[in-house]
């Protein structure tokens, strides 16, 4: 079976997917990896990718590209999102990625990021939805919302400049976040999400990316992350309320020790939890399904998918 790879470079993390394209056109994962490199540290205020963030991300990119080639990937698609879009020196990062990892990084606009995430979720969840499918993709620098129509096409998509890293850097100065800092984040999110269209009747919300999967792993106290258990799971509004309250009151060291939470994500997970909770409230929904497959899966199909007859 032919193998292909996609690498998703986000504001907070880098994700690798190497997959085989099956005769029916579907993809089956061979390897999936994730590494938190914080490319977007400080970008919200400086509009510049830091030397530390670039070096950590480039080192991971080289390792992921080498692994993909060693596994026989015939092509590698690489995308960069919010931090690279916002930074003045994004072109420097792209040049360094080409020189060191021999890959071409495409800085994709927020609307395309939303479209690719929706394509990945729709492939797994459209058959379960009684009505339209809604997708929320919470990243480090931005959050994408995508509304699917009853016919399965995209009716609305938008990328908002609210992400777990961006909001933490913008609002949080104490450990744990003070009640005033939390209130400021909540007010900012309510104002931002007021721009969302009304939620269609019988809509199903699906959340993707590290914040959502981490919250599910925390809820179920997963000492070892289990993608199969996470994918397709459900978080209720009550669970999100309790998780958010816990994460916003525990100090950083205590958060780092929680089962299900990567220590490198502990500093930004309170803001991430607030984003998801406020989004669910703004949409007027009671639950959020969880997808372990996001942009990297949509990017793989977009670049390397084909009709079975041409496989």
UniProtKB/TrEMBL annotation:
Gene3D superfamilies: 3.30.420.40, Exopolyphosphatase. Domain 2 (3.30.420.150). Residues 24-302 form the Ppx/GppA phosphatase N-terminal domain. It comes from the Bacteria. It holds the Pfam family Ppx-GppA. One of its GO terms (molecular function) is pyrophosphatase activity. This is Ppx/GppA family phosphatase. It comes from Corallococcus sicarius.
């Amino acid at each position: 079976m032919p193998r292909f790879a996609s690498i998703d470079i986000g504001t907070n993390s880098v994700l690798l997917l190497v997959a085989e394209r099956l005769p029916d056109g579907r993809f089956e994962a061979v390897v999936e990896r994730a590494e938190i490199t914080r490319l977007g540290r400080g970008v919200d205020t400086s509009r510049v990718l830091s030397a530390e963030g670039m070096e950590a991300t480039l080192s991971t990119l080289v390792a992921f590209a080498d692994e993909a080639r060693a596994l026989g990937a015939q092509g590698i698609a690489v995308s960069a999102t919010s931090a690279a879009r916002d930074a003045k020196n994004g072109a420097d990062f792209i040049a360094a990625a080409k020189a060191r990892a021999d890959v071409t990084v495409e800085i994709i606009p927020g609307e395309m990021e939303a479209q690719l995430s929706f394509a990945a979720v729709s492939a797994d969840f459209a058959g379960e939805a009684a009505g339209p499918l809604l997708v929320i993709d919470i990243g480090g620098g931005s959050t994408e919302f995508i509304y699917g129509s009853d016919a399965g096409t995209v009716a609305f998509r938008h990328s908002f400049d609210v992400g777990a890293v961006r909001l933490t850097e913008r609002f949080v100065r104490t450990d744990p976040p003070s009640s005033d800092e939390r209130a400021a984040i909540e007010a900012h999110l309510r104002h931002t999400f007021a721009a969302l269209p009304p939620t269609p009747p019988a809509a199903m919300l699906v959340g993707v990316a590290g914040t959502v999967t981490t919250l599910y792993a925390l809820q179920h106290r997963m000492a070892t992350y289990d993608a199969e258990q996470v994918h397709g799971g459900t978080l209720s509004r009550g669970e999100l309320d309790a998780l958010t309250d816990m994460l916003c009151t525990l100090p950083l060291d205590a958060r780092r020790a929680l089962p299900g939470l990567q220590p490198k994500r502990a500093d930004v997970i309170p803001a991430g939890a607030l984003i998801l909770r406020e989004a669910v409230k703004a949409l007027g929904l009671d639950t959020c399904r969880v997808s372990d497959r996001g942009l990297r899966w949509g990017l793989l199909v977009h670049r390397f998918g084909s009709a079975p007859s041409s496989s």
